[in-house]
Amino acid sequence: MDFRLTDEQRDLRAGVRELLAGRYGREALRASVDAGGALDRGLWRELGEAGFFSLRLPQERGGVGVGLPEAALVFEEAGRALLPGPLVATHLAAGSVPGAAEGTAVVTAFDLGGSLVTHLGEADAVLGAPSLPAGEPVPSADPLTPLHRVARPPAGAGARAYRDEGALLTAALQAGSALRTVELAVRYAGEREQFGQPIGAFQAVKHLCAQMLVRAEVARTAVYAAAVTADPAEVAGAKLLADEAAVRNARDCLQVHGGMGFTWEADVHLHLKRAWVRAEQWRTAGEAEEALAAELAAGLAAGPAVGPAAASG
Amino acid sequence: MDLTYTDEERDFRARLREWLGKTLPELPARPSPDDWPGRRAYDAGWQRRLYDAGYAGLHWPVDAGGRGATPTQHLIFLEESERAGAPYVGANFVGLLHAGPTIAAEGTAEQRARWLPPVLRGDEVWCQGFSEPGAGSDLAALRTRAVRDGDDYVITGSKIWTSHAEVADWCELLVRTRPVSEAFPKHRGISWLAMPMDAPGVTVRPLRTLAGSTEFAEVFLDEVRVPVANRVGAEDDGWRVTMVTLSFERGTAFVGEVVACRRTLGELAAAARANGRWDDPVLRRRLGRLYGEFGALWRLTQWNVSESEASGGVPGVGGSVFKLAYSHARQELYDAAAEVLGAQSLALEGEWTLDRLSSLSYTIAAGTSQIQRNIVAERILGLPKGR
Ligand SMILES: Cc1cc2nc3c(=O)[nH]c(=O)nc-3n(C[C@H](O)[C@H](O)[C@H](O)COP(=O)(O)OP(=O)(O)OC[C@H]3O[C@@H](n4cnc5c(N)ncnc54)[C@H](O)[C@@H]3O)c2cc1C
């Protein structure tokens, strides 16, 4: 057992980080905010060309042929960069919806549980649904995630088949965001001075930052492990912890930024709002907790509970 | 990222599981928590069985008396032992989990030969004499003095909260070998010694814990003579050695308990189903969440072990990240237990309530949560030192 990243995985992650820093840096991020969250189709195609959506398709079908762990690393980077768009749904659609793998199609999903759908206005397809439903645009809490309300959410829409993978990749996005807000908070705490010293020298601020790192690291490990085992209960745990890490870290990061944190100018609110959206996608905290409780109860019949570790033993 | 086990590791697990299955039923009954000599004998007896079966010091270096097994095998050992409900290290905690590893990493060949085998055989029990009445979180403020007299140090001072002091044979003792001065600020001038607990001048006075037991003690040192040869590391360089000890204490010493927590959580779920509390969705979800958290903490352990395996074996400051998350999750677990048991949790019968009381120490012992957060902020995140 060697849980560390392999050299290839490290290279992959570094490559994606570099690509996104070049193609979707701060200016591009703010430009998408100004554009009201309209998707940049050019960027979408470039992501497709870089293999973002076809990562897990076998090579003979034009994909990269890697697995969930690699996808988790790539999505972690996307979360860190706050890359907008229905990334997870389009990735899951690669191979079944024409153009998804290449990034020429935008695919969304009924992953919010109710009647709201993200990015419907720009979508070419909905994952697992026969056709595009009509929907009314509604204002969205996240400026980078446009929302539509559909009249009648399709009964038993196909998204359920993708729930675990969708939850896992969404958790990876959350972990990336959580790690990024630790960096933002630490940077600001080192620069901003009050009372004649950097605010990061004050213990109250330090402890907020330390606790952010703890949440982010626990979530990140949970996501990696779930990506390796693909065990549904472990995925539920990863989603639960990553949602919490992303949301609470963004809040703490906002607090560290003081008044600046409450402005449109600082990027913190963009992390927080997106974290709220993702926390509602694929698996909510309540659903994840119920799934874990069911697993715990199932373990009682099977003997002492040690969880998925036993499966790989 | 690989969580699969090699054939060799699987084989190791199977043999261990079989041995545990055979050996555990033969164990004598566990002594009561207040019976310290009984507890020591019980813990030492278990250690002896491990030693005879070849499971003692599994991941210690061979030249330190260990088996040179991989850290992964050690994790398997912890996992299987806890899963089977094997006895916990107990009185052997300090010797096996941090004094021993420190001596293995920093001691001379002679020191390793003298002190490590008896720890592995369960013949000698260690305690930790770090904290003092005026030096807890601010450990480097310690005042216990050691003055050189020929081949001995003569030691005067006192230690506090010394776990297992009543039954220990040896103490990993921090002393000041230089008075604090400009040239020797408080972190310099400290030395790490192995002190025999039966040396003349050592007095142990048990302290009662909030759980009612005598888990730790005050230790008074009145002109105690300890040979200079018992010093591990250079004179006045003990703070560096102490950091090695603390990184073992925080980094690896608690990992097996994560598995134990998952087992405990299973028992709690069974109790909740038996008394109907499982039907309360709020409580049920709370237990589900804890199940997820302990699962993630076990994965974090595997991650840390993989990282330290690659970097020479001494766990890094990442141990503080683990300790912070673990100690709070553990307290949550026992609070949830009290919710499952309701008023029944007020009766001191069974283990739930005593364990709940014990869990209160997890955010204090081995460095408080506040101190761990300082370490994470300054040493991992690089935030400035300050007030
Ligand atoms: C069950 C148990 C077993 C123990 N076993 C041993 C043992 O075997 N050997 C041994 O040497 N020690 C042992 N200890 C001692 C333990 O290491 C200390 O209790 C611990 O380091 C805290 O020190 P203190 O008790 O002096 O508290 P203090 O340092 O007085 O702290 C009191 C409070 O102030 C806070 N505080 C202090 N300094 C700071 C700061 N800089 N920033 C923010 N907050 C701060 C603390 O977090 C705490 O909340 C044990 C303790 C317990 C509870």
UniProtKB/TrEMBL annotation, chain A:
Gene3D superfamilies: Acyl-CoA dehydrogenase/oxidase, N-terminal domain, Butyryl-CoA Dehydrogenase, subunit A, domain 3. SUPFAM superfamilies: Acyl-CoA dehydrogenase C-terminal domain-like, Acyl-CoA dehydrogenase NM domain-like. Belongs to the acyl-CoA dehydrogenase family. InterPro entries: AcylCo_DH-like_C, AcylCo_DH/oxidase_C, AcylCoA_DH/ox_N, AcylCoA_DH/ox_N_sf, AcylCoA_DH/oxidase_NM_dom_sf. Keywords: FAD, Flavoprotein, Oxidoreductase. Residues 166-275 form the Acyl-CoA dehydrogenase/oxidase C-terminal domain. Its cofactor is FAD. This is Acyl-CoA dehydrogenase. Pfam families: Acyl-CoA_dh_1, Acyl-CoA_dh_N. GO terms for molecular function: acyl-CoA dehydrogenase activity; flavin adenine dinucleotide binding. Coiled coil: none annotated. Residues 6-95 form the Acyl-CoA dehydrogenase/oxidase N-terminal domain.
From TrEMBL, chain B:
Residues 6-123 form the Acyl-CoA dehydrogenase/oxidase N-terminal domain. The keyword Flavoprotein applies. Keywords: FAD, Flavoprotein, Oxidoreductase. The keyword Ion transport does not apply. Pfam families: Acyl-CoA_dh_1 (PF00441), Acyl-CoA_dh_M (PF02770), Acyl-CoA_dh_N (PF02771). GO terms for molecular function: flavin adenine dinucleotide binding; oxidoreductase activity, acting on the CH-CH group of donors. Residues 236-381 form the Acyl-CoA dehydrogenase/oxidase C-terminal domain. Residues 127-223 form the Acyl-CoA oxidase/dehydrogenase middle domain. Belongs to the acyl-CoA dehydrogenase family. This is Acyl-CoA dehydrogenase. It comes from Streptomyces vinaceus. The lineage of its organism: Bacteria, Bacillati, Actinomycetota, Actinomycetes, Kitasatosporales.
